[in-house]
TrEMBL record:
Function of the molecule: Catalyzes the formation of N(7)-methylguanine at position 46 (m7G46) in tRNA.
Binding site for S-adenosyl-L-methionine: 63, 88, 117, 139
Protein name (Swiss-Prot/TrEMBL): tRNA (guanine-N(7)-)-methyltransferase
Lineage: Bacteria, Pseudomonadati, Pseudomonadota, Alphaproteobacteria, Hyphomicrobiales
Gene name of this polypeptide: trmB
Pfam families referenced in this protein's UniProt entry, alphabetically: Methyltransf_4
């Protein structure tokens, strides 16, 4: 039964798991990252998620679907006092991150990763344990028949609300207008979240320290304007 639930959940929120075959060096870097930083959901979650990290961290943030890891790597360097959990089920994306940390000297002490369905991790984490959640350029599933696969939905917002600390941030970036509108409507309808934007610059300007991503660069080249939304957990 658990495997059936996992299969349905996985099919609901992301697509393929593998791209091109990894080169031996990539494969080795990925194995090292998984061996040293993968979160094991087979054991009980710690009461204090900061203990997932070997060093001392002040808070813990979560990035769901980090792609090639451009933003995650930037935030790791900018906020060494924070712990980061990166979730990416796409093997080639995880391998790209693994290669980057390998070239930089090894897995940062403030990084932990999960390589499967983010909803499983969200259900495992203790309540009010996360300071921020980033969902950046998620798959928009543009066809109406696939909208049920969009990660932003009432059930997942309930999950976000459960694990976020009061005052915690949920950040959502996308270049797809319909998904931006969808997210605004769903967060507005959810009692746990508020959108504190005061002017257009609050969603047109990238987040502080934003490094840009390859997905964003492609969107801009193709004439799509990104939006950067921030919601607060009440």
């Amino acid at each position: 039964m658990a495997e059936e639930r996992r299969t349905r959940s996985t099919e609901a929120f992301f697509g393929r798991r593998h791209g091109k075959r990894l080169r031996p060096k990539q494969d080795a870097a990925l194995a090292a990252l998984l061996d040293g930083a993968l979160i094991d959901l087979g054991v009980a979650a710690p009461a204090d998620v900061r203990t997932l990290f070997p060093g001392s961290v002040e808070n813990v943030r979560l990035e769901i679907g980090f792609g090639g890891g451009e933003h995650l790597l930037s935030e790791l360097a900018r906020h060494p006092q924070s712990g980061f959990i990166g979730v990416e089920p796409f093997v080639n994306g995880m391998a790209k991150l693994a290669s980057a940390v390998d070239e930089a000297g090894g897995t940062p002490s403030n990084l932990r990763i999960y390589n499967d369905d983010a909803t499983e991790l969200l259900d495992w984490l203790p309540e009010a344990s996360i300071s921020g959640i980033d969902l950046l350029y998620p798959d928009p599933w543009p066809k109406k028949k696939h909208w049920k696969r969009r990660f932003v939905n009432p059930v997942n917002l309930d999950r976000f609300a459960r694990v976020l600390k009061p005052g915690g941030r949920f950040r959502f970036a996308s270049d797809i207008d319909t998904y931006v509108d969808w997210t605004l409507l769903h967060c507005d309808a959810h009692p746990a979240f508020t959108w504190p934007a005061q002017s257009a610059d609050d969603w047109r300007e990238p987040y502080e320290g934003w490094p840009g991503t390859r997905y964003e660069a492609k969107a801009i080249r193709e004439g799509r304007t990104p939006a950067y939304l921030t919601f607060l957990r009440g």
